[in-house]
Amino acid sequence: MRIKFTFAIIALTVLFAFGDAMTNYCAAYTPEVTAVMKKKKKKKKKKKKKEVSKKDAANTTRQVIGYKSLVVEKTPEQIKAEQDSLAKVREEWLKNDTVYTDVEVKPEFPGGEEAMYEYINANLQYPEDAFTMDIQGSVDVHLVVRKDGTITNVEAVGGAWQSLKDEAVRIIKTMPNWTPGQREGQPVSYRHRIRVMFLKTGNLSGY
Fold first, then answer.
1. 200 and 169 in contact (C-beta within 8 Å)?
2. Which domain holds residue 69?
3. Does residue 93 form part of some domain?
4. N or C terminus of the chain: which is more exposed, having fewer CB within 10 Å?
5. Cβ atoms 108, 186 nearer than 8 A
6. What residues contact residue 141 under an 8 Å CB cut-off, 6+ apart?
7. What is the DSSP letter of 137?
8. Is the pTM higher than 0.90?
């Protein structure tokens, strides 16, 4: 009986000792195991991110190629039809647009009046027939500066030499968009007038 009791005590002692050793072993290696698991998770996340990026890139490429194909596939007839459609829309807009002759803020050429004179003088071409015949003078040009800054309804008035009138109209039509006039704080279309002068000693312009 005494032998059995002693054997039981020894067995329990060995069991507790083995349990403590296993606990210490697991505690010692837990951080390493956790670190390895974290590394694996990070690798998986990175791999997933790369796969998504490739997928997005592929989709983007397909979209761009599809867009290019769509543009290339347009026929000249389709392009002309679109242009004609836009022209009709603008024509209707011009018909319904109110043109004022009295505004609070007049339209302005980009850079102001002085810049306009420089533009005309730099681009005006003295008609050869008028230059040869020593014809000089001024041409009054009427135009409409629309509320979007574009120039329309350009026409020369008065009894000036025809080639001078044609050149004055041409130069006005080549002008860039203006800053539109304003009425009650809103951009509006305004009927304007510019005087273009043809002088053999130099070209001058004025209102």
1. no
2. 1-73
3. no
4. N
5. no
6. 154, 155, 156, 157, 168, 169, 172, 193, 194, 195, 196
7. E
8. no
- Residue 39 belongs to some domain of the structure: yes
Q: Position of tokens 């990175």? A: 46
Evaluate whether residue 188 is within a structural domain. Answer: yes
What are the tens digits of pLDDT across the range 153-177?
A: 999 998 789 999 999 999 999 999 9
Identify the weakest region by mean pLDDT among 32-41, 64-73, 159-168.
32-41
Give the pLDDT band (50/70/90) at residue 50: low
Biggest alpha carbon distance in the chain?
148
Least Cα distance to 79 among 70, 92, 90 occurs for 70
Higher pLDDT, 134 or 53: 134
Amino acid at 207: Y
User: Could you tell me if residue 81 is inside a domain?
Assistant: no
Long-range contacts of 146-150 (CB under 8 A, 24+ apart): 146/94, 146/97, 146/180, 146/189, 147/97, 147/180, 147/187, 147/188, 147/189, 148/177, 148/180, 148/187, 149/107, 149/177, 149/178, 149/179, 149/180, 150/177
Q: Which two tokens stand for residue 11?
A: 């067995």
**With contact defined as beta carbons under 8 Å apart, do 202 and 151 qualify?**
no
- Closest-CA residue to 182 (of 136, 146, 142, 143): 146
* Total H helices, total E strands in the chain: 5, 6
pLDDT at 101 over 50: yes
Q: Are residues 66 and 107 in the same domain?
A: no
Buried b (16+ CB within 10 A) or exposed e, 62-80: eeeeeeeeeeeeeeeeeee
Q: Bridge partners of 65?
A: none
